Amino acid sequence: MDDVVAIDELISAATIEARVRELAGDIAAHYADRCPLLIGVLNGAVVFMADLARQMPIELDFQFMAVSSYGAATESSGVVQILKDLDSPIEGREVLVVEDIIDSGLTIRYLMRLLEQRRPADIRIVTLLRKDRPEVRDLHVDWIGFEIPDAFVVGYGLDLAGRFRNLPFVGVAVLSHEGR
Fold it and tell me: Model-level pTM?
């Protein structure tokens, strides 16, 4: 069983706040006088999406989807499940998918294929974090908050089995591996 023995701060709350403000400015400039639909990927992206939306001085709308490939584990199961779908159609809408982290790329690739079938006018991605992993280097992401090392991170919406989402920073969870 994995248990957290420490959380080492990777990105401070102040650094996250400054970067979210920059991203919001860039995204607002891109959409200008249009009204994008932000789609937050639950549960991890809630904190990031709320902060991002509050910093964007444009009209916008948002909805949420719950998608999982992790469950309570620290590694992807390899199977993506839609736990909560959108509340209304996105056909003809300008869509911005808001992710907390792009790790293996499995979830975001699945989600993009699914959303593209619903014929939005445009679809883009913003993520707070992208791990430095070979399988995601070729994945087009329009806005990236931070590139991070391939470590298990928590805080600022990211969790380990539901724990640590409320930390104001992003930290690396140092795990003990009992029973190995």
Answer: 0.89
